[in-house]
Amino acid sequence: MKVSIKQISEQTGFSPATISNALNHKKGVNRETAAEVFRVAKELGYLDEEKISKIKFVMYKKNGSILEETPFFSLLIDGFEKECGLNGFEMVICNLDSRAHDYEDQIKWLINDTSAAVVLLGTELMDEEVELFKGAKCPFLLFDYWNSNMEFDGVLINNADSARMAILYLISKGHTEIGYLRGNYRIKAFRSRHVGYVTAMNKHGHKVNPEYTITLGTSMNDAYRDMVAYLQKKPKLPTAFFADNDMIALGAMKAMQEAGIRIPQEVSVVGFDDIPFSEITSPRLTTIRVPKHEMGQAAARRIIELIRKPTSAKLKIQICTSFVERDSVREIK
How far apart, in whole angstroms, are the C-alpha atoms of residue 110 and residue 56? Predict the structure, then answer.
């Protein structure tokens, strides 16, 4: 016999209206009440994983410096949402800000709500914060992030290999003095790209010169401002730079051009992401293309698989990139 809302009401002491509002995620029900409603509903068999029809796409923010400054993520979300729709799942976008006063309570609510699956966009997530997400009761996936403890399913970019590809391209064009435009907020993706940069340089016998590593803000405006300040010192520049992402590359390019440095005649630049701006800047930016729509689709397919066929096995799915050659790199004869 099917469990009714009335039975849940009798066991919890909350009114049927409150029960209904909590189960349908309506406003006006506090988290403690909602958590108790879901606990009892699951215990009585009113809810189970087979009934999951909703996937929460959670935008995690540490400071917002990455998520809020680039069109990259809107394309990821579009691919994710369309794949959910094709499979009959509703996608709900949620925000999780680590600066919120009830941040840990929000996490507990997310990972213990068995009525929905959770995909956490962990671009700004730091390793020390992952502990809070362990033991999720719902199907759970980390997106654009990977933790080495291997306790989570994850879908992410093949960052280190992609960066190596960029450096090998510059070396093939005759560049040996290759600098690094380093984002000042060290997300895991940037750290992996730095590993790829260093690995490629060392493998081919080229020195990684600390003087050619420039730390810049991660928005286009901040990267521009920081590069302007750096260039005022009249430093010696390498013949080429690899940037952590396109926003940093484009901001730095603008600063260099305003300082009279010709791109690519004097300094070549390679970015990462292939955001739309990269195609229309002058010169057009050579970069690493991330298949953003397909990456979103891959994350949706994996979380749907976890909903339909729960398993203890964890998968790390790395999305391969491609190289886009445009006009911001010159060949050294």
Answer: 9
Instruction: Say what the pTM is.
Output: 0.80
Q: Are residue 249 and residue 135 in the same domain, yes or no?
A: no
Cβ atoms 195, 163 nearer than 8 A: yes
Helices vs. strands in the chain: H and E counts, helices first:
11, 12
The span from the CA of 328 to the CA of 284, in Å, is 6
Q: Are residues 164 and 152 in the same domain?
A: no
* 276/293 Cα distance (integer angstroms): 13
- How far CA 244 is from CA of 80, 94, 182, 290, 317, in Å, comes to 24, 27, 6, 13, 21
Of 13, 67, 61, the C-alpha closest to 40 is: 13
Domain holding 146, by residue range, is 53-156+294-320
The verdict on residue 75 lying in a domain is yes
Residue 282: DSSP 8-state: S
Q: How far apart are the first and last CA of the chain?
A: 80
Query: β-strand 316-319 against 268-270: which pairing, if any?
Result: unpaired
C-alpha neighbours within 13 Å on the C-beta side of residue 40: 20
pLDDT, tens digit, 9 for 90 and up, residues 1-40: 567 788 888 888 888 888 888 877 666 777 778 778 877 8
Alpha-carbon torsion 191, 195, 196, 200, what sign? positive
Provide the pairing of β-strand 316-319 with 153-157. Answer: parallel
115: tokens are 């009525």
Phi, psi angles (nearest 5°) of residue 212: -100, 5
